[in-house]
Amino acid sequence: MTATASSPAAATRSDRPVWWLVFRQELDDLWVGGKALNLLILFGILMSITAFLLATNSELSLTPPRMMIVVMVQSAITFGLFIGLVIAAESFSGERERATLEPLLLAPAGRRQIALGKFLAALSPWPIAYLFCVPYVITLSQGDLALWPVLVWGAIVGTLTTVAFTGLGMLVSLWSNNSRTSLFVGLMIYIVALLPAQLPGEFQATAAGAVVQAVDPLEAVRQFLLKGFIDVRPVEELWPLLYAPVLATVVILGVLFLYAAPRLRLEADAPRFRWLTAGGSGGVR
After folding, report:
1. Which has the closest alpha carbon to 217: 160, 279, 147?
2. Within a domain: residue 213?
3. What stretches of 57-178 show up as alpha helix (H) in DSSP?
4. Helices 217-229 & 179-194, crossing angle to 10 degrees?
5. Looking at the 3D structure of the chain, how many domains does it have?
6. In angstroms, rounded to a whole number, what is the distance separating the alpha carbons of residues 285 and 105?
7. Could you tell me if residue 284 is inside a domain?
8. Structural domain for 44, as ranges
9. Would you say residue 285 lies in a domain?
10. CB 124 within 8 A of CB 36
11. Cβ-count burial of 164 within 10 angstroms (0-12 exposed, 13-18 middle, 19+ buried)?
12. CB-based contact 120:29 (threshold 8 Å)
């Protein structure tokens, strides 16, 4: 962070809230520094590969257009929330490594405002990433009437899951002393959330499958899109699938801004992560 966001004098002179100053500075670091652009380039490559396979593979090309739409929107959500998770996972742990967190904490600002500014900045690539997928979806839809409903619902549930995973990444970062630890934990969370999609379809109809959908917001969103637009289930049957992403978002944001952010310190108070950091100590200073 530069003096614009971290200097007490600058914060005092400005009539703008501190979260806005932090947000603007973080945007500069992400976009001018190139990190967000690099992640979006990776997103574009992955989306291009997915669309190319769907359009040209001899077996996949026989997939109905509606299924292609759902697969592309699911891919956009899966890749898009990964960007927010990665950026958020380094938000505070990276500051600790660069020794730039102390000036930020000395600014006359509530720590919730600091967390809010960083949180909003970490979310900033998501709408751009989702809009990036729209041309691919339109091309593969072949005029299917489900195109715009899927895109609208994808934006809604994708935003919910992205907010939840971004908040989770920030929690991990708050409780980590270095970005290596926070990125590792964030990656493990991401992989675990993706695992249910690799299980056989028959598993989803079992009691265990229902439990997974109730606790894994990413899997719940996948099932919501599949059942809503491939199986064409009535909306009233699908509402329970939205409980997981909504509840995860509310709980994670509640823990982040009501509990964790006000306790932000120069060193992470997270003994649960010490085993991941060679020789690290997690005491509060």
Report:
1. 160
2. yes
3. 65-89, 93-97, 101-106, 111-123, 125-141, 147-174
4. 30
5. 1
6. 12
7. no
8. 3-268
9. no
10. yes
11. buried
12. no
pTM of the model: 0.86
- Two tokens at 117? 């500014």
Local structure of 231: helix, strand or coil: coil
User: Tokens 């005092």 map to which residue?
Assistant: 12
Is residue 280 in a domain?
Answer: no
Tokens, residue 93: 């742990």
C-alpha to C-alpha distance for 44 and 56, rounded to whole angstroms: 18
In angstroms, the CA 25 to CA 266 distance is: 20
Q: CB under 8 Å to 104, separation ≥6 — which residues?
A: 1, 5, 6, 22, 95, 114
Tell me the per-residue pLDDT of 129-155, one tens digit each, with 9 for 90 and over.
Answer: 999 999 999 998 888 888 999 999 999
Tokens of 29: 């670091």
Residue recorded with tokens 């989702």: 130
The predicted-structure confidence for 177-230, as pLDDT tens digits, reads as follows 999 999 999 999 999 999 988 877 777 777 777 788 788 999 999 999 999 998
Q: Which amino acid is it at 201? A: G
Dist. CA 234–CA 247, nearest whole Å? 22
